[in-house]
Write a structure and sequence with these properties.
Order of helices and strands: EEEHEEEEEE
Strand content: over 45%
Largest sheet: 6 strands, antiparallel
CATH class of the domain at 15-29 and 36-100: Mainly Beta
Radius of gyration: 14 Å
Structural class: mainly beta
Number of strands: 9
Distance between the termini: 36 Å
Helix content: under 10%
CATH topology of the domain at 15-29 and 36-100: Jelly Rolls
């Protein structure tokens, strides 16, 4: 069985999900979907993504890495973390998130990308 090498770039994603103050670009490689989130200062999940979905909390499980900027993830159970450039993160379902500071936040998502900000 021969496996073909596949090269893709976020400059030409397979899909882009856009919302106020942000976008989520998706690239599919075989059975894996990788996402790149780009959020501008002032972006907040519950306002700019959740409201359109009728949700106050994100129910997607995320595994990823922060490329640049800073964001907070606030869990429904009261836990709060701050994610900065270079951090590799796991955020369980049941959280809100927002950009901290005046720099755009960019992160790569290796788990949860397919379901994130998806309209059923």
């Amino acid at each position: 069985m021969r496996l073909d090498v596949v090269l893709k770039r976020f400059e030409t994603p397979d899909e882009v999900r856009e919302f106020e103050l942000g976008k989520f670009e998706l690239v599919s490689l075989g059975r894996m979907t990788i996402g790149r989130a780009t959020y501008q200062p002032g972006w907040k999940w519950s306002v700019h993504v959740g409201a359109a979905l009728g949700a106050t909390s994100c129910h997607v499980e995320h595994v990823g890495m922060v490329v640049s900027g800073c964001a907070t993830a606030a869990m429904d159970d009261g836990g709060v973390i701050e994610m900065r450039a270079g951090d590799i993160f796991y955020v369980p379902p049941g959280h809100d998130s927002w950009v901290v500071g005046d720099e755009p936040y960019v992160s790569l998502h290796f788990m949860g990308a397919e379901d994130y900000a998806a309209h059923d």
